[in-house]
Amino acid sequence: MIKKFLLLFLSCFFIVSFVVIYFWRDTQFQPDANDLLHYFVFLPLLISTVLISPWLIYHLYQRHKEKKQQALTAEQSEEHELTEVTDPLESTWLTLNLYAAGAYSALGENDAILDGIRSLASPQLDSKLSDVIGLPVLSYRIEDLDQVLSQDDSEEAQFITTQQQRIMALIQHQLQSHQSLLSSVADHLKQSSLFYESQNLHEYRMHPAWIDPTHSEGDETEMKPVERVYRLDKLNLHILLSEDVIHTWNDLSSNEIIQAFFYGLGIIPQKFHIEYHFVSGTSVVQQTVELFERIQKQPNELSLIITADSEIDQDILDERLLGKKTYIPAEFVSSCCVAHPAVQIEQLQPLKTLKLVLNQNNLNQIFEELNIHDLPQYDNEEPFVLLLEDGENVKVVKKLEQFFAQSPIEPHHYLYCKPMFGETKNLSKAFGLMLGAQFPDPQVAFVYGQDLKAFIQTFSEYPMDQESVAIAD
Fold first, then answer.
1. How confident is the model at residue 51, as a pLDDT?
2. For residue 472, which of 463, 228, 454, 464 has the smallest C-alpha distance?
3. Buried-most residue among 35, 39, 243, 465 (CB within 10 A)?
């Protein structure tokens, strides 16, 4: 519009100037400074404004009409989404057994994180990070992680970024927290391989120390009789990382650390698989659901999923602060060990059952299919609905009220976990889903989340028989 007005003004300027100069020359008129200003500036400007006014009025009218139509469409769409919640759809269920779960952040570890969220724990002033003017910033830093990294004087550390060092320390923390479980899985993998397979028999027999730690090379080895066990072919390690690290992540370095850990437990390389998933904030729910669908189709494999992220790094903070006044970085990690319901591990029992329901927006329909109606926790004031979205968003609150309108769940049962992630949000939904496993038994835990581009729900439950349910749409 500005270009059009300038073009019109220049045209009027040249036309008026030609007419005025021609008239002054014939009349022998001697103009002063005010005449030049009036005839060569104000007059062309006035004529241009008069000429462009009809087009400008029409343009503003069309723009107002489009905005009004967009507002009406948005209102109708919102009403449609709210009413759609009450329409029962055909449910699609994903069911997995949950053997272990863990979470670690600046608020604490496992259920301590829930306590921190309840108490509205705020970020702390971080003297090791500064803003553009050199002042300390607020962050959700895990202080104990600094001590762990300060003790790492390996040569490999100089070839990886500070961010990867912190993320790898978080991953190692989760692996070590599940060491007892993974040792049992290692024993079962060995027994299963010796009983069902021949290609790995030589590999196990060549390493008798994995079977008998007191074995020495000069001793003769006698293999213990192998009993029949449930066939378990592989342990899968799925690591969910932010897409921001896809170009800086060193697979070789991280694989060496993880392989050494599994080797120490007695798991040969043929029996485990490491896979990285780089996700964004808009794709994390979809990729997580697709991962659970894969695991549900693997009746002879066990999967350990680890979600880890960290932005506690000055270089990253400097980049994030561009164009922003404040930025609160955070770091966190969560994990869960899941498998197909048919999987049976020697000396291990699943703690819970993880269920995901897809394409279902009606809570009453979900309750009917789960056969849960009256729960004692409805009458308590303790929160058990873990919300992954911003509680200050009006649309989120409206949809939340609509979703739980026909249930005994009240607003005081909600627990908003979004503030604990600061601005580090790409993996927040996956972390929150795993955090739902930390609610105490026999509480029924619900995890509810909504994506910005689609209506997404996650629902996690621990019924009286220690089941855990999650909803994702």
1. 82
2. 454
3. 39
